[in-house]
């Protein structure tokens, strides 16, 4: 049975479902989908009632199948998100996001005295040392820290 | 074991076998460290000392170490006199200095500076302290001192006293001692006890350790008393500081009941954690410990520069 779609169905593309409520715009940001000029048509649905968790967000991207590698970044924000690849209007593939082992050039380090927070030409790099709740360890200063959405 | 070209950023980058090997090489350096022998292990090699923060002891002992193995030293210890004052990044300075030298010793005020410098540099970088971060050569000379005094560290009772919370070099030493299988005692006021992540690391490794608030609890059983400085800034007011500092001060009275062979160590400089009347007792080893920085740094410099160590005993 075809379930009710809150926005029009897409023919080809990617649906990111079960995003932690309120995180959809951050998800767009870490996927680089909020860039100008735009590259794809994107629909964002927020605060959708959900059976599993009480509310969720959904993001639909037209005519683009996102790579697994980039999608795994979403796990930082939303560990239970699912990735649905839509082909010919049907769900062709479904994946659960998996936290990456390293987070490069994405989050900033919470230690204000870390070398990555100075003017040096160096990207941030963290090892994921725990998955749930996620704990990151800065490769440079060694500080262990939670994922802070404000710093993503 | 081949250390040629390797960086020394954190003690955690080294296995137990590698640490023991470095300490073995350091033992062979002692006669030359005392000036009783002359070594020419690395003829023509140049060490660049980049000290963005002053540190008399570390700087002098690295300089001595390099000269004792036959090398030369260049460098700076006053940032105002360098182009950093004009806004040059550490990364750019490293790219320049690596063209002038064969090995770099770096002391910087930011955590992670040495790791970054090592990524930019093609020549080995030795971390001589990065802010509140790592200070691996201090850890190595501490281990060297304990090993040479006690013979081995497995099951030895080692007490770390003072500020165990903020002192990251104490954490590095703790991890290394856990690798060696020592029994650890942590003696500190509650507010300055070991942070939870260090405790959980020890638990995961099944390290034998105990936490105390009172020195006299363990005085009779420990083989090493490693004393660190309690900083005034950590306390809301001076009375609180005085109370705590007083309770953790070592003097000859507090040593009553200690094993005859027990040794006292301190990374120096001390303020008044250890009374000067302790200096003359058979327990004091902190000046010996400071000297040990020389053979340990001689060993590291020779190893990363790929010296032929066949001439050492
Ligand atoms: N053609 C389409 N266009 C737009 N969205 C679609 C399309 N097909 C499915 N979706 C959306 O993709 C998500 C996954 O679809 P699916 O049919 O697998 O739902 P499900 O069975 O509820 O899956 P799950 O167990 O992951 O919640 C849902 O949010 C659905 O609304
Ligand atoms: Mg569903
Ligand atoms: Zn950091």
Give a verbal description of the structure:
The complex is a heterodimer of chains A (152) and B (313). Chain A has 152 residues and is mainly β. Chain A contains two helices and nine strands; from the N terminus they run βαββαββββββ. In chain A, the strands form two sheets. Chain A has a five-stranded antiparallel sheet with strand order 2-3-1-4-5, with helices on one face. Chain A has a four-stranded antiparallel sheet with strand order 6-7-8-9, with no helix packed on it. Chain B has ten helices and nine strands. The longest helix of chain B is centred in the C-terminal third of the chain and has 19 residues. At the A-B interface, loops of A face helix 5 of B. Adenosine-5'-triphosphate (ATP) binds next to strand 1, strand 3, strand 4 and strand 5 of chain A.
Name the descriptors.
heterodimer; A: 152 residues; mainly beta; five-stranded antiparallel beta sheet; four-stranded antiparallel beta sheet; 9 strands; elongated; B: 313 residues; alpha/beta; five-stranded parallel beta sheet; four-stranded parallel beta sheet; 14% strand; globular; binds adenosine-5'-triphosphate; binds magnesium ion; binds zinc ion
């Amino acid at each position: 049975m075809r379930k009710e779609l809150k926005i029009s169905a897409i023919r080809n593309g990617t649906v990111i479902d079960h995003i932690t409520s309120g995180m959809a715009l951050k998800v767009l940001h870490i996927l680089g989908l909020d860039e100008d000029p735009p590259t794809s048509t994107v629909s964002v649905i927020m605060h959708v009632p959900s059976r599993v968790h009480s509310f969720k967000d959904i993001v639909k991207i037209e005519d683009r199948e996102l790579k697994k590698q980039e999608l795994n970044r979403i796990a930082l924000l939303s560990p239970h998100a699912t990735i649905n690849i839509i082909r010919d209007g049907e769900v062709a593939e479904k994946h659960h996001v998996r936290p990456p082992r390293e987070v490069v050039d994405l989050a900033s380090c919470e230690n204000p005295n870390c070398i990555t927070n100075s003017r040096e030409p160096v990207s941030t790099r963290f090892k994921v040392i725990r998955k749930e709740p996620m704990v990151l360890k800065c490769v440079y200063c060694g500080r262990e820290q939670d994922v802070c959405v404000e710093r993503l | 074991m081949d250390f040629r070209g390797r960086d020394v950023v954190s003690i955690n980058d080294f296995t137990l076998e590698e640490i023991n090997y470095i300490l073995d090489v350091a033992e062979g350096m002692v006669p030359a460290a005392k000036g009783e022998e002359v070594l020419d292990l690395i003829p023509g090699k140049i060490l660049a000392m980049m000290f963005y923060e002053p540190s008399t002891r570390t700087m002098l002992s690295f300089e001595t170490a390099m000269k004792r193995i036959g090398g030369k030293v260049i460098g700076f210890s006053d940032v105002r006199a360098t182009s950093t004052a004009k806004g040059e990044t550490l990364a750019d300075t490293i790219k320049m200095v690596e063209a002038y030298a064969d090995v770099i010793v770096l002391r910087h005020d930011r955590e992670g500076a040495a790791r970054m410098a090592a990524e930019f540099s093609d020549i080995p970088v030795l971390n001589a302290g990065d802010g509140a971060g790592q200070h691996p050569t201090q850890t190595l000379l501490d281990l060297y001192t304990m090993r040479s005094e006690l013979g081995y560290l497995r099951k030895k009772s080692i007490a770390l006293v003072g500020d165990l919370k903020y002192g990251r070099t104490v954490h590095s030493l703790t991890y290394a001692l856990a690798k060696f299988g020592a029994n650890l005692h942590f003696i500190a006021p509650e507010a300055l006890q070991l942070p939870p992540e260090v405790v959980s690391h020890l638990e995961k490794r099944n390290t034998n350790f105990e936490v105390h608030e009172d020195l006299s609890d363990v005085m009779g059983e420990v083989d090493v008393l490693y004393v660190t400085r309690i900083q005034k800034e950590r306390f809301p007011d001076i009375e609180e500081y005085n109370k705590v500092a007083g309770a953790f001060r070592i003097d000859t009275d507090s040593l009553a009941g200690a094993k005859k062979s027990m040794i006292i160590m301190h990374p120096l400089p001390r303020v008044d954690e250890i009374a000067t009347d302790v200096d003359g007792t058979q327990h004091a080893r902190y000046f010996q410990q400071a000297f040990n920085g020389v053979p340990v740094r001689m060993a590291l410099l020779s190893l990363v520069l790929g010296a032929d160590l066949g001439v050492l005993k």
